[in-house]
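User: Teach me something about this protein's shape.
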Amino acid sequence: MNLLLISTLICILEYIVPIVITYFTTHLYVRKKQEVELRKNLATIRQEMASISMVDEFAKYAKLQRKYNKLENTLKEIENGRLSNRRKARLLTTYGFRFINGILIMIFLYIYNNEPVIKLPKDILWPINYFLRWPTNHEDSISLIMWFIIARIAISKCTQIHITSNH
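Assistant: First, the predicted structure itself:
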């Protein structure tokens, strides 16, 4: 029973952890005060530019336009750096977890290779019992490798159903 719960939890975590990582990285890499101030400055400069006549006061308008472009480029650089760092952190933690999870699955498969995850009543799995018990020799049981396959397929289908029902 413990093997069933642990192996199912491993499969569930494979789909939940990336969602949790995305949530935390989004909240860890939020806009800084500098970005907020730059946005406010851009808005005030835009208002000033709207109040000035481009034809009558071209020099002043051009000066504000250059200042606006400079602030906008600075803001884009800061945002791109923040988003790049967030993307890197998300990828490293997600793939790091998947690597550790893969090693854990391999260890479980090596240790519990001949152990059944579930033993069922006789002949309940009759047409496919040989396939589901592989590589174990226990009658009417499901092996760990087959359970990982079944659990992963079931969880991926549930996530697909959840994703399509939200859209």
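Now, about its shape. The longest strand covers residues 116-119. DSSP finds five helices and two strands in the chain. If you'd like, I can walk through any region in more detail.
User: That's plenty for now, thanks!
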